[in-house]
Specification:
Largest sheet: none
Strand content: under 5%
Helix content: over 70%
Radius of gyration: 19 Å
Mean pLDDT: 85
Number of strands: 0
Order of helices and strands: HHHHHHHH
Distance between the termini: 54 Å
Shape: globular
Structural class: mainly alpha
Number of helices: 8
Low-confidence stretches: none
Length: about 130
């Protein structure tokens, strides 16, 4: 009964949208990196490009544009570094009316926090395993 009433999945189309949008974000990141290199950032151009993309992701989130992009592209917009900026900025915007400490500061990493914690823990674990066996 559930299968008959559930909407049909558009996996192929959704995958294509995610691929194209994610690729476009990565291509934009490469362009930004090249611009920073041209501007003289040298070996710091990758860091400057990452900071630029995080800023743009947070700015587009604040303007309400990034949510529309994410709704269209799905994981293609949420997986790159701009998706991390969106994950940090969205709760901050949502809870800012509750005050600086109880709203903004306490909810800032509500989505991105677990990703940071488990990403850091797994990298430490993998590093220890690598040191022990190699």
């Amino acid at each position: 009964m559930v299968k008959s009433r559930s909407p049909k999945s558009k996996t192929g189309l959704d995958t294509l949208k995610a691929f194209v949008c994610g690729g476009a974000i990565c291509a934009a990141g490469q362009i930004v990196t090249q611009l920073w290199e041209t501007a003289g950032a040298g070996e710091n151009s990758g860091t400057a490009a990452s900071m630029t993309l995080v800023f743009l992701g947070a700015l587009l989130t604040g303007l309400g544009i990034y949510d529309s992009i994410a709704k269209f592209a799905g994981a293609g917009a949420l997986v790159p570094i701009t998706g991390f900026a969106n994950a940090v900025a969205s709760p901050a915007l949502e809870f800012k009316t509750e005050g600086l400490v109880t709203g903004l500061a306490s909810k800032l990493f509500i989505i991105a926090g677990p990703v940071l914690v488990f990403g850091t823990l797994s990298s430490v674990l993998y590093g220890l395993i690598l040191c022990l066996f190699i």
